[in-house]
Amino acid sequence: MIDLLLVSILASVLALVALALIALLAGPPAGGFVYGASAAASAAVAALATLYLAAGAGTPLALVLPLGLPWLGAHLALDALSAWFLVVVGTVGAAAAVYGVGYGRHTDEPARVLPFFPIFLAAMALVVVAADAFTFLLSWETMSVASWMLVLANHREPGTTRAALVYIVMASLGTAALLLCFGVLAGFDGSYAFADMRADRPEGWLAGLAIALALAGAGSKAGLVPLHAWLPLAHPAAPSHVSALMSGVMTKVAIYGLVRVLFDLVGEVGWGWGAAVMLLGGISALLGVLYALMQHDLKVLLAYHTVENIGIIVAGLGLALSFKAAGLLPLAALALTAALFHVLNHGLFKGLLFLGAGNVHVATHEREMDDLGGLVHRMPATAALFLVGSIAISALPPFNGFASEWLTFQAILNGDRLPMWPLKFLVPVVGGLLALSAALAAACFVKAFGVTFLGRGRSGAAMRAGEVGPAMVWPLAALAGLCLAFGVVPTAAVALLSPVAAALAGAPFPTATDGISAAEWLFLIPLDPGRSSYSGLVVLALVAGVSYAGVLAIHRLASNRLRRAPAWDCGFPDASPRTQYTSSSFAQPIRRIFGSFVFRAREHVEMPEPGDFRPARFEVEIKDLAWAWLYAPVERLIAFASLHLNQLQHMTIRRYLSWMFGALIVLLSVVALVG
Amino acid sequence: MLRGLEFDIAHLFSSSVLILSFGLLYQRRLFGVLQIYALQALAVACAAAWQAYAQAYPQLYVTAAIALVFKAIVIPVAFHHIVLRLHIHREIETVVGVNMTLLFGVALVALSILLVLPMTTTSGNLTRENLALALSVLLLGLLMMISRRNAVSQVIGFLSLENGLILAAIGVKGMPFVVEMSVAFSVLVAFIVFGMFFFRIRERFDTLDVHYLEAFRGERH
Amino acid sequence: MLSFLLQLVQLLLVLLLAPLLTGFVRTLKARLVGRRGPSPAQPYRDLWRLLRKEAVVAENASWVFRSAPSLVFALSWLAAALVPTFALDLPLLRAADLIALVAILGSARFLQALAGMDVGTSFGGIGSSREMMIASLAEPAILLVIFTISLFIHSTMLPHIAGFVLAGEVGIRVSLGLALIALIMVAIAETGRIPVDNPATHLELTMVHEAMVLEYSGRHLALIEAGQMVRLLFFVSLIAAIFAPWGIAEASTAEGVGLVGIGLALYLGKVFAGGLLLALFETGIAKMRVFRVSEFLAGALLLSLLATIFLYVSQSL
């Protein structure tokens, strides 16, 4: 029965590939069918993986297909970790696909999107179940290329081609790093199957090299600082349902690669690496949210915010590595569970938010927040659902983002049990970074929701917008429902994750019971009931009950009269909508605090003399440091190399041949020397 | 974990010295800086007196008295007088932002703790902690000297650095009294020298912002 | 059963006490500057008057604006009801530890800031933007304070923390002192008191909270004002529960009823002592410029970080 599970999952993936072929042959008219069937296949994958996890995820299921390299075959396996990520891929994938049914009609060139969408989904699922390096890298590269094609779908929009170029360069570099990483893991004579790598784990500096390469390869895909700069270009450039997949799911697949290498294939990871990973995560979280706060394009803001959430996840992973290195296995399980729970949560609410941004785009053809406003009146359903996503991503109760951040903080609060001194100091610093980024995230989403949906419309497009069709609202509603469900009953996710923690951290999640609460699912109690406990359901019930009762009592006993009148605004009448706070003015205090250091923010004020009728001008210039320090040199290097390699194209036949001959001689001598 | 009242009170005093160092870094008003410096000297005096009692080493009472009279009273009052007489600008200009300075300060504290604790495993608890805190105070004093433009606050930075030295000296059992006397005198000398220095700068440039001094030397344009 | 009763008493107590605390501070401040000032019971009258008035809502206000006051009030009230004030054994306390309490207040602020932007006036925007700026520095500071406390007591559950301190296992701890100062600084910022914000002003350039709620009137305003009062009481109770829990009754058995009475009396004493200190502090200090607030809060943040470092040092010796 269990083998059947893996086969059914593969069948669903195969169905996705078949759908791509259908889309290629039938073209845009088959859009509804392709998206609908993709949704069904993704939902099936998610359901099967959930079933596997709920059954306790016994022995890993493995399968070798006679495909790919002849001596290797295609190894596929389903274990608890794969199953968890399949849940994420399937759930968000299904929502995005259903959304595509409605949204697909609004894309400019559906033929450029339709065939690659199912391929993209299938590739992500395959990465997660791959059990040898070749299959893994092939699927990884397919995922990259498919998403690259999807980014290029809007190629007529300015900036998209540049984004796609940066993306494909970074993706290739990342794949190269992963390729080298697997090379190191396999060793000189090793096999590329994961099972063989586990049997013969690298040690010493080789292990360190493998970790560094995995961090570079998977980290660049996930958007870890400083390798993140491609992400806010590429993710927003794609159509919105694809952006949701790229930000919500593809970055998680990259996290999967990281977890697979760090916790499974390498085995023993020194605490120094744990510290480095933790610090990288903390810095990513803070910088990601700070850059997000400075954005005025809704989708770019969401993309930068992905960097923040990846940072939170990676900080949790680093903490788990440190605990594991110190032999504190239950705490490692706690940190790992928190990180992986956040993987699901971020998939859910980031998917929701990107789809919401897609609705706004469809209704107004506008992504610039400073030209929006007041959409809550014209798109009430989208606004309400976007608000749910905003609260969830700001890590506020009773939604799911808070549950996983709470678990992360509980793990951080146990940092004093680590015996290493530098870690003792580092853990509170990372805790401070995460707390700062969580608070800034709330500011960021007050801005995103407030400027886009509240206030008065700042442009004609915003004033004329109308609600989108139900096919584009229901997937959001489903994701919002899941955000609430996992926030209210986080114990469900923790229970599903317990086999993962047991397999990778060496101990199950340290659930404690206080003996009093009859229902263990009601209270989330890690470690010890005297230490900490949380119940989203009780908080939700109390807040809902108290506010409802309060309103009823006031209406009954005091007054329920209501009058509509023009806004008071301290007596200032009929202000133009342009006097409202914009996204940049909202972020100005925070820019002032962090600006000169983090953003290299430069403000130019041009104030004409009294009597001069020129308008006053105010300009703000903000730079992403990663561009200045990392990408710009690489860009220059590539430009230099391409300029010089260009000359190779204009060589004579004789010179081509002599180059090839030289290469042959070099290779032969290498073989001679080594052999 | 429980080491009794003796440790707790010593810990309290020496930590107050350190926290007041942070106060110096935080404060932007010149008189505020002087007041905090006086408080810091008072805390040093209390720490010295407590060590004299705890170690039964009466010479330390003299150290406490010197700290109390000269540094908590005479120097701040004198500076107050100088500032008023010279009409020195009372808003302190910083080279880097206050937030960054404070952040850097906390990093320095962590650094000195990481340095001192592993190196002194054989000494007593009181000494180890005192040394760690004293090194932090010293580094913060240096930080204050380099992060301020105003000459008066640079001198205060120097003086608080010297408070760190005293803190280190009183923690070590049986530190010769001579050392402390010399430290105290060196401060007096430094005070006089800086006093002269102020008058000279002031006469020449009409300001105590050392920035102008650098420009005069051709370092800045 | 008794514990449920105590929980109910606690819920009502914080609600009824909060306006009195605010009124007490106002009267005291007036007296300190030589005015007669209103009676401490004035906030009750104000709230009742506002509740009975017709609510005037701006024409383009949405459901966010209208539903925010009751939710903000409910969240603040819930947070205040979850802090042990006079008895430890309250059934709801298990639903939220300190981190969750901070986050519950964060939810309230989130909704409040959104409501400020709903009408689309620049005052609302200015208030929301500054409120979120202050919060973004205050929240990490309070979390680091929690971190320090949890390192020391190994718990983030308030009853457990209060019980630990009550058991007298805490000596003079510099790190706890630092945490206390940091917590007070954060509390001042979070409750919008001088020097961060001025609760009495309507001068546009200096106000933060008032700008955000400028468009509210009638029962909506009453709920928001009540929420603000409850929030002040929350912070006073929180500081009392962590740093001065003496008198909180641990038992809820039959003979514990007398202890509960003592606990109640002591709690009232602590609240008014807190109010007195607040009034003295506010009278003696001037309001800061908005951009100095970041330095004030960064100071709190670094104090709490320093507290953590100190704690490690004294524990490692």
Task: Give the SSE layout.
The complex is a heterotrimer of chains A (675), B (221) and C (317).
Chain A: H1 2-26, H2 31-54, E1 61-65, E2 74-78, H3 80-103, H4 110-113, H5 116-129, H6 133-151, H7 160-186, H8 194-199, H9 204-222, H10 231-237, H11 240-265, H12 271-294, H13 298-325, H14 329-364, H15 375-378, H16 380-393, H17 400-413, H18 421-453, H19 460-464, H20 474-488, H21 490-505, H22 536-557, E3 562-565, H23 583-599, E4 602-606, E5 617-621, H24 625-646, H25 653-674
Antiparallel strand pairs in A: 1-2, 4-5
Helix pairs in contact in A: 1-2, 1-5, 2-3, 2-5, 3-5, 3-11, 3-14, 3-20, 5-6, 5-11, 6-7, 7-9, 7-10, 9-11, 10-13, 11-13, 11-14, 12-13, 12-18, 12-23, 13-14, 13-18, 14-16, 14-17, 14-20, 14-21, 16-18, 16-20, 17-20, 20-21
Chain B: H1 4-26, H2 30-55, H3 59-86, H4 98-119, H5 125-147, H6 151-171, H7 177-205, H8 210-217
Chain C: H1 2-32, H2 42-52, E1 55-58, H3 63-81, H4 98-118, H5 122-153, H6 158-166, H7 174-190, H8 209-212, H9 218-243, H10 256-284, H11 290-316
Helix pairs in contact in C: 1-3, 1-9, 1-10, 2-9, 3-4, 3-9, 4-5, 5-7, 5-11, 7-9, 7-11, 9-10
Helix content of chain C: over 70%
Order of neighbouring strands in the sheet with most strands of chain A: 1-2
Q: Gap between N and C termini of chain C, in Å?
A: 46 Å
Oligomer: heterotrimer
Largest sheet of chain A: 2 strands, antiparallel
Helix content of chain A: 55-70%
Strand element count of chain A: 5
% residues in beta strands of chain C: under 5%
Class inferred from helices and paired strands of chain C: mainly alpha
User: What fraction of the residues of chain A are assigned to beta strands by DSSP?
Assistant: under 5%
The ordered H/E elements of chain A are HHEEHHHHHHHHHHHHHHHHHHHHEHEEHH
Mean pLDDT of chain A: 88
State the total count of DSSP E strands of chain C. Answer: 1
Shape of chain C: globular
